[in-house]
Amino acid sequence: MNEAKKIDQRADRCPGMTYTEMLEGDTRSPPDYLFEESNIDMPNDPLPIEPYVSAEFAALERERMWPNVWLFAAREDELPETGDTVLFEINDKSFLLVRQGDGRVKAFYNSCLHRGRKLRTKSGNSTQLRCPFHGFAWKNDGSLKEIPCAWDFKHLEGKDLSLPEARVELWQGFVMITENHELPDFKTWLGPAASHYDNYDMENRYTGMWVAKKIPANWKATAEAFMEAWHSITTHPQLLPFLADANSRYDLIGHHFNRAITPSGVLSPHLKGKDQQYILDKMNEFSGGSDADTNRRYAASEDEVTVDNDDELSARKILAEASRAGFTEAYGYDYSDKSDSEILDNFTYNIFPNFAPWIGYLPTLCYRWLPGDTPDWCIMEIRLLFPTPKGEKRPRAVERLYIPDDEPFAWAKDTMGEALAGVFDQDMSNLPHVQTGMKASGNNLMELGAYQDSRVRHFQTTLRKYVNGELPA
Ligand code: FES
Ligand SMILES: [Fe+2]
Predict the structure, then answer these.
(1) Distant-in-sequence, close-in-space partners of 423: CB < 8 Å, separation ≥ 6
(2) Per-residue pLDDT for 297 more than 60?
(3) What residue's CA is closest to ligand 1, atom 4?
(4) The whole model's pTM is what?
């Protein structure tokens, strides 16, 4: 093992194989950034429930945090053509992202400079931005085009009436914006994890699945339900035969990034006495439920495969090999030198505050959480970003499918895949009761696991820094 791959093993981990040992047993060489463990010393004291339930805290988030961070506003595949315009709304802010003729994207505050009407209330192509109220019009580059009844606005002659803009950066096909013009560039702000995306041609991916649903829980409680894997034992028991939930790796890097890596194709340490064939069978059963499911995961070959029950990674190796072939067939690229890990595993990467774009060669999941107008609800969006098949033009993003408030994720099972929708519905079986349960707390505190809940503590620590005015630095 080379120096870069030497890691500081913690003693207080779940028994069984560590993720690093799985990487060491990979049939190919995984990249160094998967080996690197990064923990931050934090106290283990209880955390307050107030941030999840308090309107005053939400107001402080709106004042001090949201305008001062980089936000995922759109995928570039939502606005591929000149004039394509995406409406991005968060809290009471509204932005119009407009693709410029030179390929750049501008983000205008969606508010007329006359008497404030929103210039647009939906996405679509624009040849100009004309206010529907009295007809003030701007060109797509934000410069003023026309004032009706100009004789009444002689006092504005010579004044710059261009639309105010937020800052925009294009990164890996994501349109990132911030209202804070003093922040470092996005990659510096994010830190070393920005380079973890370089291998997966993210820029050339497209939004092939996109659903949204109102969740009756605070945006942070909802996001945090996806920051650890160890709730699988009670919430997602069907995943345990092929998901090493409690062997997940948790890493914290800087203020704005943390990750969980949950290995696939290995038995949960909670299950005993099962062989490698059991893992293969269960994973195939889960993956093969519908066309939408098999878009994401490939069952092992139907040909006879030889499992080695003395090798804890045997099923994983077989599944990875089958997936390499499946991906090549679907997308046309050569995956023969790609590691088992990057082919199979679940890379739950979170970028503060509300953005979770996974990495890896699978069609990658990408979550976004948008706060509600009270602390008690949010919108959760789930996308799958698919590789553009080799030689083809990147497809335009699909439209967002909004799941009716009283319907489960299973309502969208034809879009999401039955197995994936089922997993999210299991998460939803907790979240409304997390919100109401927090309000019913007798001591208004949460006691967290030192390791498996470390991302929750890290996220809350960064948020506190914004709310207290310690960030942005
Ligand atoms: S408010 Fe926009 S033209 Fe009057
Ligand atoms: Fe879950």
Answers:
(1) 236, 239
(2) no
(3) 134
(4) 0.95
Domain positions in the chain: 3-46+187-467, 72-182
- The answer, yes or no, to whether any atom of ligand 1 lies below 6 A from the CB of 115, is yes
Interval 65-93: pLDDT, tens: 999 999 999 999 999 999 999 999 999 99
Q: What is the per-residue pLDDT across 197-250, written as a single tens digit (0 to 9) for each?
A: 999 999 999 999 999 999 999 999 999 999 999 999 999 999 999 999 999 999
**Could you say which of 2.102.10.10, 1.20.1090.10, 3.40.50.720, 3.90.1720.10 is the CATH number of the domain covering 72-182?**
2.102.10.10
**131 in contact with ligand 1, CB cutoff 6 A:** yes
Q: Which fold has domain 3-46+187-467?
A: Naphthalene 1,2-dioxygenase Alpha Subunit; Chain A, domain 1 (3.90.380)
Pocket test for ligand 1, best of 94, 136, 138, 144 (most atoms within 8 A of CB): 136
- CA 253, 106, 143 angle in degrees (round to 5)? 150
pLDDT, one tens digit per residue, over 133-170 is 999 999 999 999 999 999 999 999 999 999 999 999 99
Across residues 278-291, what is the average pLDDT?
Answer: 78
Residue type, 320: A
Rounded to 5 degrees, what angle do the CA atoms 213, 82, 379 make?
10
Residues less than 5 Å from ion ligand 2, measured at CB: 427
Nearest-CA residue for ligand 1 atom 3 is: 134
Taking the CA of residue 119 as reference, the ligand 1 atom at the shortest distance is 2
Task: Give CA–CA dist 188/202, Å, rounded.
Answer: 19
Residue 136, ligand 1, Cβ within 6 A: yes
Q: How many Cα atoms occupy the beta-carbon half-sphere of 383 within 13 Å? A: 25
Ligand 1 centroid, distance to 129 Cα (angstroms): 11
Please report the atom of ligand 1 found closest to the CA of residue 135: 3
